[in-house]
Structures are given as structure tokens and as C-alpha cells.
Specification:
Layout (H helix, E strand, L loop, with lengths): L9 H10 L6 H11 L4 E4 L6 H15 L11 E4 L3 H14 L7 E4 L6 H9 L3 E4 L1 H9 L10 E4 L2 H6 L3 H9 L6 E6 L4 H10 L4 E4 L10 E7 L5 H9 L7 E5 L2 H13 L4 E4 L5 H12 L5 E5 H4 L9 E4 L6 H8 L9 E7 L4 H11 L4 E2 L9
Parallel strand pairs: 1-6, 1-7, 2-4, 2-5, 3-4, 5-6, 8-13, 8-14, 9-11, 9-12, 10-11, 12-13
Helix pairs in contact: 2-3, 3-4, 6-8, 14-15
Bound molecules: adenosine monophosphate (AMP).
Length: 378
């Protein structure tokens, strides 16, 4: 799936290219067409899933393509988020995506003087990104008019609730037109959130994507920069460490998986592969050998690894970096289960750096670089 497949207009395609996004994330794949069709959304998704772009891109497209001259500089989009950091972050992202689109954006939160915010409002804006408290304050002072809002987003709704913003949200939404498109995102869906959703959304499409992008906190992640041809030597080197006890290795291809197993067996390390070209019984027996520790290493392709549930996996090794950032999160989620600590090691060759960059963006933190190894290429 590409962004072109999602029928985004050229300025937005340029924006995602500028940002270096290669492919849409799962939530973007689902949310973008749904929002473009004018439907409400109830999205269960955490930060790090790419959800900001998932709502921002289609909203910008709708604002741009359904431009009504009379409505210019009337607030047509309102985005609410719980904290000033999140508000600032969403706003910065939208500013980047909307470059060259002649849309005005204002960012509203408390803790600073309201002067700059009210000035922007008075000049006329198309999009408001706001924390509920300050927004309501400005509304009560007569600076904000929301009767032309067409798109409403509530981001991290559960956190807004936890922070006691429910009454503010109710007061704000009461001033919006009934006829509008609403998108509500929440990492969790307790009863109160469902109640809020029921009152604000009309026939929403539910998107459930939480586990896709949140790497387990207990997994330490590191990356080894290495030449492609040295990966097999690096693997043997890493496996010399006895602490690397029970290892699931991922390759991108079936052929790659077989090759890794061959190299390992040649070095006296017990390993087997599971992938689509293996019969079900071969896969079952490989998995059984791995589970009962007859073999130390299992090598798998992403498809074949689905549903593998192995306790006490100490390490996941990305022998090849996956093209999809979410796949990385899925892979490393195999270790660090049930409170165990685990480690994810990624072998990155020069041609895979773009994939790694996307992973960083998705998980939003740096991965520790191991440079003290015999095959480093820095
Ligand atoms: P969010 O979940 O919206 O907080 O986004 C998490 C991070 O992922 C942000 O830094 C985005 O810039 C980045 N991001 C969003 N969409 C993509 C994509 N399709 N590919 C790579 N990174 C992305």
C-alpha cells in the first residue's frame, strides 16, 4: 500500500515524501479513506501509530478540495488534545503537511499569554488545535466562534477525561453544528469514553489498532550497523554470548531464512527455519523443538511467525530490517512478554537505513547503536 493508493492530492503526497514516509501505517490505511468518505471514526490507537497524519491528511484534503470561498477563515476544523505538548506537536505536524495550501492554523493552550492567540483568531483561521481549558476560556471571552466547524477531532480522549476535561469538552461540543464529521481517538475505551463517543459520533467506523505500534517497554532495543555480507559473521559473534539464550531471528524472505539456518548449522549452532515453503508438520516440529529448547534459534519470515507464542524468548534478532515500521514493532513484541525483559537486536546494512529511519519515527525514540563489534562500519 502506498500513499498514492489512498488517493491523496498532490500537495499532501509531496508532504509525506518530504517527511520521508515510505508507506502509510495501518491506521492511516484504514482511517484516510474512511475520513475522505465523510464518515465518523472511533479509533482505538496509541501515540506512535501515526494517528496524527491519519486524521490530519484527509482533513486537509477535505478542506482544500471542498473549499468554500465564503467560509474561508471561518473555523472549519477543531482539534482537541489534552496537553500543551500534544497540542503543539499536532499543530507542528499539520503546519508541515499543509505547506503551500493557504490554510491558517492557530494553536491554543494555557500557561502563556493569550494575546498572540487572540490576535491570530481575529485575523481569521481555518484550523484550531487546542487544549480544552484555554479554548473554553477564549470562547467565553468571545474570541472564538465555532458555528462553522465541519471537522472535529478529539485526540487522546481518555487522557482528556482523566485530566478532568469532560465538562469543558461537553461545553465546547455543545457550541458546534450538529452536522459535522467527528473523529475520536483513545488508547483505551472505558465506559465513560464509550458514552462520550455515543453522544458525539454518528454511525462511527471503529478502528482498533492499539497493539500495532507500541513497542513493549521492557524490551531493550539496539542496532548494529554492518555490511550486508558481514551479517552472518556478526550473527555468529552475537550468538557467542551465552546470555543470548533463546532467539527468534527474522528475515524478509524464505530463501534468506534457509540461508541463515545453513550458516548457523555450519557453525555448530542448532537452528531451524519456519516459512511458507515448509509443510505444516515441518513448521510444527520446528516450533516444538524451539519451545522445548532442543534448538536455540528459530529463524522465521514475518508471515510464518504469525501466531508464534513462545515463552521466555530472550532475544529477537532482525537479521534484515523490515520494510514496514509496524512489522518491526510486531517482531520485537515477541520478546519481553508477561513482564520478562527481552532484547531486540537489529542488523542494519546501508541499503536498509531508510527503513530504520521510519522505525525511529514510528516508535519515536532512538534505538541504541552498538558500535563496539568487530564488523562495525561507522
Ligand atoms: P503519531 O502516532 O501521530 O504521534 O505519529 C508518530 C510518529 O510517526 C510521528 O513522528 C510521525 O511523523 C511519524 N509517522 C507518521 N506517519 C508515518 C508513516 N506513514 N511512516 C513513517 N513515519 C510516520
Amino acid at each position: 500500500m502506498t500513499f498514492e493508493n489512498l488517493n491523496l492530492i498532490q500537495p499532501l503526497l509531496n508532504a509525506v515524501t518530504r517527511k520521508g514516509y515510505l508507506n502509510p501505517t495501518p491506521i492511516q490505511e484504514k482511517a484516510i479513506p474512511t475520513i475522505l468518505q465523510g464518515k465518523d471514526i472511533f479509533g482505538c490507537a496509541q501515540t506512535g501509530t501515526g494517528k496524527t497524519a491519519a486524521f490530519a491528511l484527509p482533513i486537509l484534503q477535505l478542506l482544500e478540495t471542498e473549499k468554500d470561498r465564503n467560509q474561508r477563515r471561518a473555523v472549519r476544523t477543531l482539534i482537541l488534545a489534552p496537553t500543551r505538548e500534544l497540542v503543539a506537536q499536532i499543530s507542528a505536524e499539520i503546519a508541515e503537511y499543509s505547506k503551500g495550501m493557504d490554510l491558517r492554523l492557530v494553536t491554543i493552550y494555557g500557561g502563556i499569554s493569550q494575546h498572540a492567540q487572540t490576535q491570530s483568531l481575529q485575523r481569521g483561521v481555518d484550523i484550531i488545535v487546542a487544549a480544552p481549558g484555554r479554548l473554553l476560556d477564549l470562547m467565553n471571552q468571545g474570541f472564538v466562534h465555532l458555528d462553522k466547524v465541519e471537522y472535529l477531532v478529539l485526540d487522546e480522549a481518555d487522557r482528556m477525561l482523566d485530566m478532568g476535561f469532560i465538562n469543558d469538552i461537553r461545553k465546547i461540543t455543545a457550541r458546534l453544528p450538529e452536522k459535522r464529521q467527528t473523529m475520536l481517538f483513545s488508547a483505551t475505551a472505558p465506559a465513560e469514553i464509550r458514552k462520550l463517543a455515543a453522544s458525539l459520533l454518528h454511525n462511527p467506523v471503529q478502528l482498533n489498532l492499539s497493539p500495532d505500534s507500541a513497542p513493549p517497554i521492557l524490551v531493550s532495543q539496539s542496532v548494529y550497523h554492518v555490511k550486508k555480507e558481514n551479517k552472518k559473521l556478526l550473527l555468529t559473534h552475537v550468538l557467542q554470548n551465552d546470555a543470548v539464550k533463546h532467539v527468534l531471528i527474522f528475515t524478509r524472505t524464505k530463501h534468506g531464512a534457509d540461508k541463515v539456518v545453513k550458516d548457523l548449522l555450519r557453525n555448530g549452532i542448532k537452528a531451524r527455519a519456519i516459512h511458507g515453503n515448509k509443510s505444516q508438520s515441518a513448521r510444527d516440529s520446528a516450533l516444538k523443538d524451539f519451545k522445548d529448547r532442543t534448538i536455540r534459534v528459530l529463524v522465521a519470515t514475518d508471515v510464518a511467525s504469525r501466531g508464534i507464542d513462545v515463552d521466555k524468548l530472550t532475544h529477537v534478532i532482525n537479521y534484515e530490517i523490515p520494510e514496514q515500521a509496524e512489522t518491526y514493532v510486531h517482531r520485537i513484541g515477541r520478546t519481553g512478554r508477561a513482564g520478562e525483559t527481552g532484547a531486540a537486536l537489529s542488523f542494519c546494512s546501508a541499503d536498509e537505513k531508510a527503513y530504520l529511519k521510519n522505525i525511529h519515527k514510528l516508535i519515536r525514540h532512538d534505538i541504541n547503536v552498538v558500535s563496539a563489534h568487530p564488523f562495525t562500519i561507522n
